[in-house]
What does this fold into?
Amino acid sequence: MSLFTVDAQSVSQAPEVGVQGAPMGSPSHHASSGRATSPHVVIVGAGPAGSSAAILLAQQGARVTLLERARFPRDKTCGDGCTPRALWMLERLGLGALPGDAGAPVDSVRAISPGGITWSALIPERLFGGRSSVVPREVLDERLVRRAVQAGATLREGVRVEGLEREHDVLRVHCRDGEPLRADVVLGCDGSPSVIRGALGAPAFSEHEGAFAVRAYYEDVRLSHPRSMGFFWEEALLPAYGWIFPLPGGRANVGLGMRADQLAASGVRLPELLERFCASPHVAAELAGARRVGRVKGHHLPFGSSARHTTFDRALLLGDAAGFVNPLTGEGIEFALESGAFAAEALAEAFATGDLSARGLGGYARRWQTRFRTAFRLNRRLMWAFERPRLLDRIFHLANRDERARDELIDVLSGEATRLSWRFLAAVAFGR
Ligand SMILES: Cc1cc2nc3c(=O)[nH]c(=O)nc-3n(C[C@H](O)[C@H](O)[C@H](O)COP(=O)(O)OP(=O)(O)OC[C@H]3O[C@@H](n4cnc5c(N)ncnc54)[C@H](O)[C@@H]3O)c2cc1C
It folds into this structure.
């Protein structure tokens, strides 16, 4: 059985370059005709997950086609907050330090509990240099996709993928317009809900799973802490939590999210809850004199703790399509970017052995489980605590007076914590 099909068109068009771990001339690169071609990876969706995978795979020498239904620059509903790890990944992908006009540099976190207890702290150096940033997705995603093209990926914008079909060793990607596209491997990076997820037979994310979140942009904002990401747990709005993230030019991203099942049970609408959030005393003080620009936009967030189905014969699910979102904070950019790197590494291994079955691609699941799973589980458990106002007051009170506890909370809000120390738990439980 030949591993890589030879597509006459692609042989004449694509350079015959090797994939890392399987140099040209190795048996795995020879199709039945005797001609060799690099494997064709079709990536559906050019958000952070798709572009990250495209950059790294193209750098490895794979033939990459990136299909995106929108045209860049395009907006994506998001809080635009990049964690320290996300910034580190962006540098690894060759975006370099993002210039000041691209995003607002952030060096600290500030959080307010339901009882009004506030703590703030600098992001420690040990977390990827202690830097975060807030970068509008209209800017971030375009820079990433341009980098993918620079690395050698072919970008096809305005292409809506509608399905996937298997034919022996080949996958055919069906688009709304045009001929189906032949692929050796398909990466589903099409967010939530995901067409590729459905086509691979993975269960759809239920509307009662995960969370929903809304955001709005404000201008003429004069934040009290312009280099801080602000997180707010307002008593009247629990179990929702909100944020104010600074943007360049006196703008801010203001938003709010709530667990999907709780939202359904409450009967409230998130845009109305956002109005109440903006009118609440702490937030109103930050937004005094500011005005909203554009519409309030919302979207579903699939939770990482329910991520299970990610690896299939000749196909992987990445980013939101896999459910890689921090259940406590709703952050998903870093997991999307990192899942792109894990997919590229696993594919390099699979190309080298010639085994593109789910088993051969197993390195992908091993990598993301090692990195994400414990953090997702911890954050899922912490959601319980973060919905209880008096407990949250106690935790924030502790953070205020104890530097080590504060450090642990920064890890939690940055998506880095995999456990909480006994010292922290005892201090919260016994009020020490
Ligand atoms: C309100 C809100 C606030 C958030 N705030 C933050 C935050 O501050 N920080 C953070 O880290 N995360 C945040 N997130 C989560 C974050 O936005 C996602 O986790 C992240 O965008 C996932 O990246 P992705 O590449 O997997 O998917 P996406 O960014 O959703 O990209 C998917 C791409 O696929 C394309 N696509 C979809 N279907 C098709 C199709 N059929 N054919 C072709 N193309 C298709 C889409 O157009 C899109 O470009 C927030 C989410 C929401 C909703």
Notes: The pocket of flavin-adenine dinucleotide is lined by residues 44-50, 67-70, 76-81, 160-161, 189-191, 195, 213-215, 255, 299, 301, 319-321, 325, 330-334, 336 (CB under 6 Å). The chain has 14 helices and 19 strands. The chain has a mean pLDDT of 87. The longest strand covers residues 291-301.
